[in-house]
Amino acid sequence: MAAIGDLVGQTLTAVAGAVGGDELRFKADGKEWRMFHSQDCCESVRLEDIAGDLADLIGSPIVSAEESTNLNEQIDGKPECLDSCTWTFYRIATAKGLVVLRWLGESNGYYSESVDFDLVGEVQ
Asked: What angle do CA 16, 39, 80 make, to 5 degrees?
């Protein structure tokens, strides 16, 4: 298991993934990380939004990388989800700009809604 903070100091060469998907991959200096969720019954975790340009993360060292969450957030006084949900935000910055990744995890309340971040390993 890795942590998003492990990207600090890395210079990314590629970022792959898109809004609506369940995985993002980051490559730097012969290493690859992935942000994902192993889906189970009665749950869904997906990348809901990207604020900023992923291209700003490539070719310039990562200066900060943070995670935060909001559980069962309400919008306009109404629940955002029916049973249980978790918003997970990742803020990743370089000198070129800031990117905020917003993940949404939903379930019936008995399953994980979290996002995992792992070092996949060495890549060519």
From this structure: 90
